[in-house]
Request: fold
Amino acid sequence: MINDSLINETAAILHEGKTILYPTDTIWGLGCDATNADAVKKIFEIKERSPEKAFILLVDSIEMLKNYVKKIHPRVETLLVYHKRPLTLIYKEAINLPDISQSKDKSVGIRIAIDPFCQRLISTFGKPIISTSANKSNEGSPKFYDEISQSIKTEVDYIVDHRREDREPKEPSIIATFDKNGELNIIRG
Reply:
């Protein structure tokens, strides 16, 4: 059961430009308002990651996705309906996002969240959020909340109190893009 006050509290934290540690539809992640350049910069600092390597963004729907990419391949909606695992797609032209939230070539990786908690949080917040694994760049991704390092836990502004006891194995999302012929290319499977 997802607590409404937890959703509202977490969305308020994001509106303040703060960082969160939260369970995603894949693994535990670091997140913030993807449209707030200062908040995104803080995620790069927490992860000790080079800004040249952009983060994945989460949205709650195709409708929200349309606000942040110039063109959506016509097969995306069908692909998302039939795909069983979380799927991040690379879009060639980001719009309405600060430079720090996209790659240097203006592309952006976005996933429509399938987890009910993430969907409700993003819907309540009303904007995309950053989703990156809850670890330093040179460390492995934690599978469960208890595997997240203490340094990550102390550097974020807020830790979401949801699914901390969950031990169901999760995997990172599949990452794919469409080539110029409209064919799907899997980057990470």
Summary: The longest strand covers residues 87-91. The chain has one domain: 4-188. The chain has a mean pLDDT of 90. Residues 4-188 form a domain with the DHBP synthase fold (CATH 3.90.870.10).
